[in-house]
Design brief:
The chain is an alpha/beta fold and about 250 residues long. Helices cover about 40% and strands about 15% of the residues.
Length: about 250
């Protein structure tokens, strides 16, 4: 197939996809109401503005543990002692949007992905503007083992990282970090079991050419996966932060 024919086929497929998206019922997966567009270049799908805004953090949150704070600062008093990895998220997993994020991973329901990535990007840039964080040189999706990737068909962290890379203009590197151990799913495990499960599960494929990186995942719960990966980078004096669509905080912090 020559270049012109490939281009024609590509444009045709794009037109078909656009027509399908614009003729399918566009309803919010949470409230089931129609989603009305207000001049957006890209139609918002999967979640309406009201549900999206209601699910976001309404107060400041500690970048260490997610605890609600009244004062704008990087860490709460407890986290100031240990200064854990910054976890950047636009919302709590428990406050309404967790259902959508779970649907992306387990039901391949990716309609709200663009809107969720967009509010994460806004959260990142807001913290940068307020000088609480510094942008990384690269974003790295948390990898799946080849067996898990084959069975699921996609890596949700890669989808998020790819969209963020386009929105923020930051390079994505999906070849530097690999998961070489096919670990058990973390859901349902307690903190100790999660640490044992993830121990030495990741490795680097080459020397690290960066000084600042952001690890991308859909949800950060106990931080076990992020902390295990960060050991590889901090051993080489690389600053690590984590970006996710939502944070599942410990009970009582929100």
């Amino acid at each position: 197939m020559d270049w012109q024919l490939r281009q024609a086929c590509y444009k045709g497929l794009r037109s078909i996809k656009y027509a399908i998206l614009h003729n399918l019922p566009n309803r919010c997966l949470l409230c089931r109401q129609d989603i009305h567009q207000y001049g957006q270049q890209r139609p918002q799908t999967g979640i309406c503005q009201s549900c999206l805004i209601a699910g976001l953090y309404q107060d400041e949150a500690c970048l260490g543990c997610g605890k609600t704070m009244t004062v704008l600062q990087r860490y709460c008093g407890h986290c100031q002692r240990s200064e854990p990895i910054w976890v950047i998220a636009p919302c709590s997993y428990h406050q309404g949007l967790g259902e959508l994020i779970s649907g992306i991973k387990y039901q391949q329901q990716c309609a709200p992905l663009h809107a969720l990535v967009q509010v994460l990007a806004i959260r990142v840039m807001d913290l940068v503007a307020r000088e609480l964080i510094q942008l990384p040189q690269v974003i790295i999706p948390v990898p799946l083992h080849a067996n898990r990737l084959k069975s699921r068909g996609f890596n949700q962290a890669w989808l998020i990282a790819n969209a963020l890379s386009q929105q923020l203009g930051i390079k994505m590197d999906d070849g530097l970090l690999i998961r070489h151990v096919d670990t058990q799913a973390q859901a349902g495990l307690d903190g100790k079991a999660r640490r044992i499960n993830c121990a030495n599960a990741f490795s680097l494929t080459q020397d690290i050419p960066y000084q600042r990186v952001a690890l991308i995942d859909d949800v950060v719960t106990t931080g076990t996966t992020i902390n295990e990966i960060s050991k590889l980078f901090t051993a080489e004096y690389v600053h690590v932060q984590a970006w996710c669509l939502a944070r599942a905080e410990a009970p009582g912090l929100i």
